[in-house]
Amino acid sequence: MYDLVIKNGQIADGVTDNLYRADLVIIGDKISAVAPDVSEGLAKKVVDASGMVVAPGFVDVHSHSDYYLVIDPRAESKLLQGVTTDVGGNCGYSAAPMSGGLRERRVQDYQSQFGIKVDWSSLEEYFETITQAGHGINYAAMLGYNTIRGSILGENDSQPDNGSMKKIKTTIAEGLDQGAVGVSVGVVYPPACFATEDEFAEAIGVVGERGKVFATHIRSEGPRLTESLTEVVNVARRSGARLQVSHLKTAGKANWTKLDRAFDILEGAMSEGMRVMADRYPYLASNTGLQVVLPDRAFDGGKEALLRRLNDGAEREAFLKDILTAHPEPEYWETVMVSQVVNLKNREVEGLTVAQGAELRKKAPHDFVFDLLAEEDAYVEAIFFCMNQENMDRIFNKPYVMVGSDAGARALSGPLAIGRPHPRTFGTFPAFMQKYTRENKSFSIPEAVKKSSSMAAQFFGLSGRGQITPGSYADIVIFDPDAIRDNSTYTNPIAAPSGIKSVFVNGALAVQDGKLTSNLAGQVITR
């Protein structure tokens, strides 16, 4: 007997470039056969996919679900858009490994904000935590270099000596050997922003030795875009690691003309035989902490030092000069929107631009920013409207660019249904299908499915994922190609997409008719 047969669908298998009609046979957590006209009489359950596309579950190559899977293991925002596998721990920030003062601070922060117990240190212990509780999606982990460096050197501008560099490399090696698929670096964020190319090359050498991935949020996606891409290409070249450039973009109107040079840098590396990929989400605004408007030196010494500086008049004046140098355009604060705060008294500014919030509070925009960061202990999420459509289209059209949300697993209700998260949180993959297969027809459905599944699985070495072939894991999304749509907006982002009929994770039904089931069938993926 078959556990499940999916009949009458159009298969986009993540391997070939054609849609074809076939039935899927699933036994346990694997695809047993892909064949025409499979008998229903041999199946315990039959799903009719007439008029639908049957595709491998989407692989979110750039995710931040690490702690969210502990807070709410359902991974609702991922599953509702067809994502069955997450690659987490990106931009240098991971749940593990961590130690020292950094770990102590995170234990306190997540306990106070979400009421969860952070009782792990190593990646292996983190995997045990989420496995025991169960989780809705498959999860592969990157090691966050910022987390590791902060654990060993502190959250400051200290430079590693031979002893501390040995500890960093040993910690990376242990995490990789415990199953991490690579190391991520948020070069723009502290404390990695204080590191040099030489430091990265030495540390990431451990990744190269194991044939794994170096993923990076580069030092600058705007004024120093080309220099920043050159830096990470050099690191990948020197270390021998595969390079994944996170959320490739040209941020800020003054930098939109730099895209050709960015392509040249990446494609030049590929011409040398280097393995280079990139990811992108289908939106024109980015999302990160509001504190990124501050200069690097603001973060030397960690959060407590930052908060002291934010309350120091002379420091604020110096910060303002740096901000005006980086963003002289008078309309800048109209392009930055506050998306999430912690304290109730500041909820009124969620969904407002900095300019609007400043007007509401009757403050200068920079004072509004400094005060809000100080009041919120620097935990303020913001959305930055800084990109253009033409460049986004050109980026997606590159054969080495795949889809990644740059978002964690959130929910329609409960502790993770907070703030105004970026629409990419609930809508990345439906938005990509909607915009690029139905509206502007840049890609066929099979091509779009590859960018959303098998490309990521192959580059990160996620064996058996991202494709519909006999023997592969039964991670499946069934969607209506004429109805798949992102319903999230910047002001009302917590909304389920349309057009996703069913999602299966390791053969278990996770979404039925656009609604989450109670199954937590995700697996930890190690490599």
Short description:
Helices cover 34% and strands 19% of the residues. The protein has 527 residues and is α/β, with parallel strands linked by helices. Strands 1, 2, 3, 4, 5, 17, 18, 19 and 20 form a nine-stranded mixed beta sheet that branches.
What does this structure look like?
The protein is an alpha/beta fold. Helix content is 34%, strand content 19%. The chain contains 17 helices and 21 strands. The chain has helices at 68-71, 76-79, 100-114, 123-133, 145-153, 162-177, 197-209, 225-239, 259-271, 303-310, 313-326, 354-361, 365-375, 389-396, 424-439, 445-452, 454-460, and strands spanning 4-11, 20-27, 30-35, 46-48, 53-56, 58-60, 83-88, 138-144, 182-186, 213-217, 242-245, 276-280, 285-289, 336-340, 381-385, 401-403, 476-479, 500-505, 508-512, 515-516, 524-525. Strands 1, 2, 3, 4, 5, 17, 18, 19 and 20 form a nine-stranded mixed sheet that branches. Strands 6, 7, 8, 9, 10, 11, 12, 16 and 21 form a nine-stranded parallel sheet that branches. It has a three-stranded antiparallel sheet with strand order 13-15-14. α9 (259-271) links the parallel β11 (242-245) and β12 (276-280). α3 crosses α5, α5 packs across α6 and α7 crosses α8 (225-239). The chain starts with a strand and ends with a strand.
